[in-house]
Structure formats: structure tokens, C-alpha cells
Specification:
four-stranded antiparallel sheet; single chain; alpha+beta
Amino acid sequence: MAPPRSLLELVDDLIAAILLRLPPSDPACLIHASLVCKRWRRLLSDPAFLSSYRAFHRTPPLLGFLRDGCFFRGRHIPRFIPTTAVSPFRQPASDFAHSVALDCRHGRVLIHSPDGSTSHLNLSVWDPITGHRQVLPVLDTSWHACSGAVLCAEGGCDHLHCNGTFLVLVLIKMDTTGLTRAFVYSSNSDMWSARAYVQLSINNYIDGRRGALIGDEIYFIRGHHSHVLRYDLHHDCFSAIDPPEVGGFGAVLMVRDGLLGLVGIGGRYLQVWLRKVTPAGVAQWVLSRNIEIKKLIPVNPVKVTRVTGFAEGVDAIIVSNGDTAFIIELKSKQVTKVAGPASFYSVFPFTGFCTPAMVGLLRLQLLSLITKYGPEFSTLFGINEATSSASVQRTNKKEATEATDYKTSLKFLADCGVRGTELYSFATALMDEQALSCFLVMKTFRERKQFLNELVESGVGKKISRGKQ
């Protein structure tokens, strides 16, 4: 017979049962709970609790999306647009300049960094939550256009917390004749392998929008949804599927209830098509939803309204009306405005569980800089001087420069009496490098604090332009 449990253990179980029900769609809830006391922080960082938390909620929440090709200060940088009140992680670093996102799946982002050459491809895989970026071996092949996908390769993974091996698939239009070939990278072997090829028409291409994954099959749109191209990873072969008649400009592939789908705007309607198999064994497209778009979002008659992305699991799409992005939940028809004004063509939704333990791994180094400037803050996180010194010593020259700016900004706030959870919210906002640079050029505490309050309330990055003035 097991010995009776102590009162403290029973209390921990009760607290864990309550914390288990905090919404994963708002990572700030878990972060704020971890600030209550060391005991709660230890509980929330326990791997057993985190595993139970993911299993309890099952569906990774939508944390935001990557807007491809955001032009900022003369550089194209994939820009993360949070759907939470405060971004759960920092923006892509400056070394992503002149880069574009090709895919976002299973907690990873596939990044293409062209250098002007058409004889090779520079690709990397980035984990936004931990900040880790793995540069892949250079793919030596001629190319004119490319599209790709990154996916978890762990057998039996439930994709709630993917951190093992992965595969990268890229489809490359190799020349002007339309010859397109598949290449696959495995993190196990750290090597590329050339796969099957297919001959497309001269003027056809693989659309840059996110593909759809069903089992071992990955689907991409060719051109302006003229065809759906299917690649089978297991059998290494291509096949084509005729799409349904969807009017308007562009459409996005989706997976719903295990079926391949296509969502687009035809005329005045948002149309959702699913590819189903009839009793006779024939696969055909069936119109599943037909919703009048102007009943959901404002429509600008002089601008194009288009679907730009689909978030798997949460059954939501991202729609742009020409200068503003909206998230539409297909089941409830609930609409949320998330970004604007800006132009959106292709976005890559990011889903995942962002917990205090994962955030702590990324931010320990930056948070340790606050030790001497915010004693209350350091106590909450249990950061001591030894941890701070060791962390600072590990920074390289570039990181040390960024750390100095970060430290200067936080010292300014701490000296003005900003403490505790308010300092944490501001520190999180300052981890965006563009926000930090704007913050540093401001002269008065009142101006800086108003700027940070607006960042915290409306999402990091929306007030960047104001900071430049």
C-alpha cells in the first residue's frame, strides 16, 4: 500500500489541476502564473506538468503568422504577426534579411535566403519559440523558382511538441522549360537527396503559398490554382489533380477532417471545397461552405480580397481585404482583426504550445541582465549573479552589443520605478529589435512608457512607425 501523501503534495496536485485549465491560446496566462511564486514556477516548468498540459488541450493554439517578404529598412524580412496580446517570442533576427518563408509546420519555419545566385539554394530551419536556427547544407542545383515544406520525421509523434528529427522537401523549377524536381533533406543524415521530377508547362510554376500535408502526401498549387500538384514522399512520385472552379484571385489548400480542401473567394462568396470519395470510389470536389464574404469582413471594392492562409487544427483561415488581415474561424464564423494596414499575399500560420519553461530557455540570457537593475524581478525568476555572469560571458560580440542596448533600456525603466510584472511585459516588448531601436531614440520617460504601453496593448510592432518620427 502506497504511503499517504502529504498535505503539500495534495495542494500541488490541486494547483496543477487548476493551472492545467489555463488557455494555451494566451501564453501570458502561464507566464504570469509562473511569477506568483517559486513554487508555482517550479510546477509550471515540470516536464510532467507540461506533458499533461499539452495532452489535456490536444490542439496547439494559433500564436500568430509569418507575413512573407515584409520590406523594412531596405530589407525583406519574414515578419511575425502575433494573434496574442503580446508576442510570445521575438521577431526574426537581422540575419534573416533578404529572406523569405517557404513553410511553417510542426513548430518549425523553413527559410530561404537567396544571395543573388541561381546555382544553389541557401535554406535554414528556425524554431521561433526557442530561437534556434539550423542552417542546412547548401543545395547545389540551378533554380528559377522554388517552394517547400518542413515536417516532423519522428515516428509516432503526436505533433504537440516536435523537437526531434525532421524532413525538408523543396520543389525546384530548374530551368525555363518547366522541369521541376523534388529534393529531400533529412536531419538524421544531414544530407540532401535528389528525387523524382515532373515536366510542367513553360509558363507554369509552383505557387509560393503553403502546401497541405496528408500522411506521406504533400500538395501544392500550380500557378493561379490551375492545378494541384501531389508529391508522394513514400513512393517518390508526382501526380496532378484538377481543382474546383473557384473564381477570384488565388486560393489556399487546406486539410479538414483528414480531407484535402481548397478555400478561396468566388465572386461575393467565401467557398470551402473538400475532396471526397463517392461510394463508387471516385474522388470529387464537393462544395462544403458558401459564405457571403461581406457579412464577415469589410470589402474594399477597389482592392482584391483574398484568402492568404489556413491554420490546421484550429480550423481558421486568414483573409486579407487589401490592407488588413482577419482571422475567420470556419465553424463559429468568428472574425478577429489581427494586422493592418499592410499588404498580404501569402502568410504562414504558426501553432504551438508556448510554456514558461520553453520561454525561459530562450530568455534566460536577456532576463539575467536585469539582475542589478530590478531586484524584485530577479527574485521572481530566481536569477542569481553567478547565472548572470556565466550567461553574459557566453554572448558573442554582436549579442553583447544588443545586450548593452537592452540593458540600457531596462535600466532606464527600473530607475523610474517600473517593477514586477509591468517590467516583465515591457521587457518582452523590447525583445523585438525594431521596437528596441525605436525605444532608444526617445528622450523622455513619459514618451518611452507610452510607446511601450501601446506595444503591450496592441501587439509588438504595430507602433514601430510612430517611434521613428
